[in-house]
Amino acid sequence: MAVSMLTAVLVLILPYALFNIPNIFDNTYCYTGVTTLSLLKPTASCFTVSSSGRFTDVFDLQDKRPSWLSRVIFRDGFVLPGLWDGHGHLIQYGELLHSVNLFGSVSMDDALSNVRQYVGANPDVGTAGDWIRGVGWDQAAFGRMPVARDLEDDIALKGKYIMLDRIDVHCVWVSQAVLNLLQEPIPDVPGGEVIRNPGLGVFCDNAMDMIMKVFSKPDAVKKSKFVSSAMKELNKVGIVGMHGAGATPNDLEMYESLADGEAWSVRVYAMLECGKRNTFCPEAAEHIFRDDGMLYMRSVKLFADGALGSWGSAMLEPYDDHPQSSGSLLINGSDLMSIATAWATEGYQVNIHAIGDLANRLAISALFWALDTICRTTSRSECQEIHRFRLEHAQIIHPDDQQRMFDAGIIPSIQPTHATSDMAYAEDRLGKTRTAEEAYRMKSFLSLNPVLGSDFPVEPPNPFEGIFAAVTRKSPHTGKGKGGGDEGWYLEEALTLGQALEGFTKGPARGAFLDGVAGVIQEDAFADWIVVDMPLEEMRMDDLRAVSVRETWVAGKQVYSG
Ligand SMILES: *[C@@H]1O[C@H](CO)[C@@H](O)[C@H](O)[C@H]1NC(C)=O
Ligand SMILES: [Zn+2]
Description:
Residues 76-560 form the Amidohydrolase domain. This protein is α/β, with parallel strands linked by helices. The protein has three domains: 2-76, Urease, subunit C, domain 1, CATH 2.30.40; 107-212, Diaminopimelate Epimerase, Chain A, domain 1 (Roll); 220-552, TIM Barrel. Helix 2 (90-97) packs across helix 8, helix 10 runs parallel beside helix 11 and helix 14 (416-422) crosses helix 16 (463-472). The protein starts with a helix and ends with a strand.
């Protein structure tokens, strides 16, 4: 009896022991339902995860029993692939979590009371070595541009070092103590604006450099705190990976040291940004490919123009509500062309920030020039298929240039919540025709495999807000359309739920050369997944913007539990 049991056990175990040892350490998870986004097997009930953090099997329980040496764990809930944000700013988001939140301030009093409250909770900040930071103000809520005096006149804020970013982070509003650090007289700056009316205090685009020069920057310890706080928050909303839209060589060095640690719970696909914007600095950093997929760097971020909110985006024709201005370029077309080409020649994916239709036209020309230079024997679209150049924001694009994007397959990197945040004023800036033909395209660009994201901290990072905005073209904050109406804004550009979900999974995966590896549940892909209460397609549309994530898993490890 004992002998035959032993034989039976040996007969069963031996093949595994000899040929399949790692299986003993594998976990198999079975949930109520699994949406894989994989063409191989769109739905499943179970998947097996290797100790190296990859899916090794995806199957239905009725088709197949899990390997009996794999530990099987049954859990409730509906699984989706882990979500990616295709354009965000990690350190700045962490900084936001450690600073004054001015988003949604409805008046100057409201904004000042937020700053006062922060000072109340953090009484030591505001010194020359530790400035008070904040972000999210919008002069539209103040009825005028803010000035340094507004801060100085507040008894609780007098004398403190304060720097507050505009909602689009293309302008800063600073206090008198900061102004005192600048050399008089304060000059005008090409590609930027020193606001002088109704007084000094706001600096936009290139004029912000003047402030950044005197800014006492957070040290490495503070920055790594920003990163870990940011990652924790991102995991909460289901994010397992993000494209970092601008990491300096110093940031990358810090990322490399942090990526080994427990707190590094979000995959980062970083775009290099030279110490000096729009330059060529290949010696400053090396490409990064980690075997565990937690950090990559093989792309560069360039900037063609500013933002629409501050009339900074570079337009082919003047603004309708500012007829004397058509915004400004941060770099001219020929320089953009040569810098893009230099990076492409070094083997970098080139990603250009372009908002206005002039900026997008020049960016596309620069990318075309780069493609034609690096691939002399293949067609432009074949070359683009390999190098995957991107337009970051791709916000306002002339129909002729949209056609050029289709011809070559240029990837648009789009933030659906920018459309719904800007809908309040976009048509005033652009007029009817430009808005209808050029602005905030999503559905039109579907064949270009758009990468969707939030641009956090400019918008909140919750991908379900982005999905809601893409599907309804309504504000995820109010659930309403333009002016509080029930109608979605230019609904003809809306995506379906499935298309929007792909934009936060497969789109960013392809835009980061990770197709088949990220944003999908299939064999050999990263074992990254999230769990929600019910299938998205069964939710009421209005509940979609407030989906709560129950679990987030990265590389087979649970990083968030709701
Ligand atoms: C572009 O800008 C650079 C300097 O920033 C300048 O040297 C060059 O002449 C400009 N080119 C054109 C065509 O304006
Ligand atoms: Zn950005």
